Amino acid sequence: MIPARSRSIQAPAAVVMVRPHNFTVNTETAADNTFQRMDEDSGGLKSRAYDEISRAVDALRSHGVTVHLFEDEGTDTPDSVFPNNWFSTHGGGHVAVYPMKAVSRRRERRWDVIEMLKREYRVQDVIDYSGLEMDGLFLEGTGAMVLDHIDRVAYAVRSDRTDPIALERFCTHFNFEPMVFDARDENGVPIYHTNVLMCVATDAALVGLSMIDNRVRREEIVSRLEASGRDIVELDARQVSHFAGNAIELQGTSGRVLALSRTAHDVLRPEQVAQIERGCRLLPLDIPTIERAGGSVRCTIAGVHLLPRGGLRSPDIPARQPAVARQ
């Protein structure tokens, strides 16, 4: 039985999700995303992906998580089901919009999503980094970064999708300390997004430690996570390849849940499950079709760390120097 816990700024109670009507695997992003699977029969992908997101939304809502669901009926945004890459929200009323590497992914940015956030939540400013795309500088949101909202650390695997200049600008604006490292899969291929390698929840952190190249840096990451009071759940390469690191902690009406895919859940060992469930309940979601595109549950969820209009004061830490909208 999981004990009752107070709310955590790490676990948002509301999320944004996008339901695709014309889902397909994005060939433009396949070069550096080894998690994509394009060699299987593609029949029925659209309807299966639509149904998987529908069921995932129902499951989250049944646990008391507020889901703002947007529809994508377009045919030129194959990765629209992964909104966490193009925007993020932050306590104090701040929203970030990110520069994307793939041209097809830049079309995912939707200002109707931003306008909804302004209507429903207290948004002070929108900081738009997308202009950095013209300079070849990319930072793909909470795919490129795994954010510790409690200890104010931005963990980031070095890659073409995580430019150090863009990362430094984000961390300066939003008061995070960058912790950059190199990581590779068991075949020596660089990891493309940090959030397939690690998940930081309130009481635990799931990390594929063996995939972090530099031993000293690996120990620094472990020390930093443990110093913040978290248990380390070490994932092996097989578990990472099955998306066990691609999870997100959310606040439900009966406590916190860790949303992850059924694929990920099924490769966790019993002792790892017990370790995680000391702080939150596991909530597996079935999205095998979506996972063929190279992302899992965490990628489909953009957390809302904003104060609802008419709500209580936000417990989160405000950004350092709010910037003007759409720089």
UniProtKB/TrEMBL annotation:
Lineage top rank: taxon: Bacteria
Molecular function, one GO term: hydrolase activity
Signal peptide: none
Pfam assignment, any one: DDAH_eukar
Membrane-spanning intervals of the chain: none
Keywords: Hydrolase
InterPro entries from the UniProt entry: Amdntrnsf_FN0238
PANTHER family documented for this protein: AMIDINOTRANSFERASE
Protein name: Citrulline utilization hydrolase CtlX
Organism: Paracoccus broussonetiae subsp. drimophilus
